[in-house]
Specification:
Elements (H helix, E strand, L loop, with lengths): L1 H11 L11 E5 L2 E4 L4 E4 L2 H4 L8 H13 L10 H12 L5 E5 L2 H20 L5 E5 L8 H5 L4 H4 L9 E4 L4 H7 L4 E6 L2 E2 L5 E2 L2 H14 L2 E5 L23 E4 L10 E5 L1 H4 L15 H14 L2 H19 L6 E7 L2 E6 L4 H9 L2 E2 L1 E2 L4 E4 L7 H19 L1
Parallel strand pairs: 3-15, 5-6, 5-7, 7-10, 10-11
Antiparallel strand pairs: 1-2, 2-3, 4-12, 8-9, 11-12, 13-14, 14-17, 16-17
Helix pairs in contact: 3-11, 4-11, 12-14, 13-14
Length: 395
Amino acid sequence: MAGSTVEKTAQYVLNTYARAPFVLERGQGATLTDADGKTYLDFAAGISVNALGHADAELIAAVSEQMALLGHVCNLYHSAPHADLAEMLCESSFADKVYFCNSGTEAVEAAIKFARKHARETFGPGKTDLVAFGGSFHGRTAGALALTAREKYQAPFRPLMPGVTFAPFNDSAAAEKLIGPGTCAVFVEPVQGEGGIHAATPEFLATLRQACDRHGALLVFDEIQCGVGRTGRLWAYEHFEVQPDMMTLAKALGGGLPIGATLLTDHVAGSLAPGDHGSTFAGGPVVCRAAQVVLRRVNDPAFLARVLALGARLVERLRDLRSPHVREVRGLGLMIGVELDIEVAPLIKAGYAHGVIMINAGPKVLRLLPPLIIEEAHIDQFAEVLGTILHEVAR
């Protein structure tokens, strides 16, 4: 069965991913099992998606119940799950309005359009420039890719959307030089994911807020990977005491179902009108019911305190490994990067043999994003396995 699935994938699926050499068949909590019955401890969570782990009973019940009632109606009609989720998001954040879509890159595309429309309505034509930062990742569609400072992602698809400039991440002086009268928006991840798990400094984000206010630009936080409890706060921006004008979400919000969201203030929303943007599948009843479960569960003080405590334990256990290959362990909550002095691809491959799933953030950083419901025993097990793998590599 596993061989057949791998062969079919090779024959029929466009080869845009280098997949692991096994077929995942089922999951439970923080573990996954493949078609051969081998079990893995999941420290990727589908790239920060499965906050509640696999096969969560409440999530399954909510989705099943909603699908039996109403599956899809499109945005020409009202549905209660759509409105209820929007209310929950606004009441738990800085936002006054929500635009729903189907993925993180779509949320970024929407934010680009909203920023340019707002600038045109407020200041007239010409204020269209965008500022982003080194190490950023905002998505792979045309506009989002133009904001993604990764040469290997951009190079094959140029020319990209014009009007984007990049400053070094956490360099306040460089950012201030780029943000000017022609800037309509500044896009930044409070904690960079693909860029290597680097947190912004409070001073840097405060500088961006001040520069945007000074020049009438919008500050957009990309919390697609670091939001929804991943850092031990519901929103990563809460660590920094700086609020954006817009925020993009996806990944963990849907509990495994595809959803994206762009949150915005009334100040921005007032520039938009029916017909300015849209999406057939966005805000569907089923995924909105799922997202309500995730948001309610994660946005609990005890849950978030536990994420912080488990993250601190994971960092401590990783530092205790004292491997000569570990250069730095960094992160917030359960969003951890382990920077090494060697390539991490062999370690990830060795992890499969030892029953652990990990992913990278660049060639020399292990990116650890376990489900937020992991136990202390999982952390201890993972640290022991990683220590074994590092010892094998060193030997």
